[in-house]
Amino acid sequence: MEAAQSVIGLKKAAESFNEVVEEALSGIAPDIGLHLPSLDATMYDSPSGTLYEVGEMGYTMVEVGCYYNGTSYGVKAEELRHLAQSSGLKIAGLYLNKFYEKPERTTQDGATPEEATPEGASSKAEEQTTLSAEEPTTLSAEDKAWWEKAIESAVAMKCRYVTTPSYPMESSAATVNDYAQYYSAVGAMANEQGMIFCYHPSRRELTEQGEQGNESIFDQIAAATSPEQVSFQIDTLEATEANADICKLIKRYGKRIASLHLHDVDITTESGRIDFDKIIRVAGECGVKDIFIEVSNFPLPPQNCVERSLRNVELLDSVRF
To answer: Among 33, 210, 237, 289, which residue's beta carbon has the most beta carbons within 10 A?
Structure first.
């Protein structure tokens, strides 16, 4: 009997300890990142000074943009990582704009069908092309080289994500198919380097229906891609302007949503249009890992807007400090 009571006592003690630990952990603040294009102008003027200010504000990570040929804001990837680290920041993601360029079809001898066929004449060249509408979408040599270099830069920055918002105005079924395969191909390249590839849909893709049914272009892209290769970054302003229920969207796609952009009309949380507290709470429950503040309209100087946005987010019940 004494032994049994001892076991019961130990069990109760363990349960009490776990409750204390869980309560303590619930009070630990999540990392809050800054979508660094919010401060593009000063990043070009003074990368080190701007990153120092961002760290002093209380941000713990950044998502870098303005990528060109191995640099961001004119600074090489590894150097930018060192500048961020010296300001107490980690670079969590690289934000990239790169539209898909369909490879030109070629005949078996390397010529295009137009080159292989005299004007007005018919030929078997079209039947011998190495790429047809029925065949899988492929990356051109130029696109592949571009992405290889961009992902190499993201590796040098020690990013977790590479993200693109790039999607054309065309909304045909063929375009949805092309971009689903394009994102999958890039996602596979990112996976090989231990990174997550994210597609950041705009208001149009979250609203507009393509030719493949009643779902939005975003939903169609999601259905046509693998969770292992393509994740998502949801922007609260883009989704709000698309009249999307953000919490339902997060619940539907769960862990496929790797991060959020806390984006408001101007300073985050101040328009009153978006329930950021609820969104952050639901995102946490569904396994969303990171949140980034984005400011794109500036009623005050940009530094003031991104700092005030952070203070506002810190005051939300869902973000405990």
So the answer is: 33
Q: Is residue 2 part of a domain?
A: no
Name the domain count of the chain. 2
Count the Cβ atoms, other than its own, within 10 Å of residue 17. 10
Q: How far is CA 35 from the centre of its chain?
A: 10
* Whether the predicted pLDDT of 127 surpasses 70: no
Is the same domain home to 118 and 231?
A: no
Q: What is the pTM of this model?
A: 0.81
Q: Could you tell me how far CA 99 lies from the centroid of its own chain? A: 15
Q: Are residues 228 and 215 in the same domain?
A: yes
Assigned token pair, 68 = 């060109």
Contact of 262 with 292, CB cutoff 8 Å: yes
R_g of the chain, CA atoms, integer Å: 24
Task: Annotate 129-168 with b (16+ C-beta within 10 A) or e (fewer).
Answer: beeeeeeebebeeebeebbeebbebbbbbebbbbbbbbbe
The domain of 202 spans 32-98+138-314
pLDDT tens per residue across span 52-63: 999 999 999 999
Q: Report CA dihedral (37, 279, 236, 195) to the nearest 10 degrees.
A: 50
Condensed to tens digits (0 to 9), the pLDDT of residues 242-282 reads 999 999 999 999 999 999 999 999 999 999 999 999 999 99
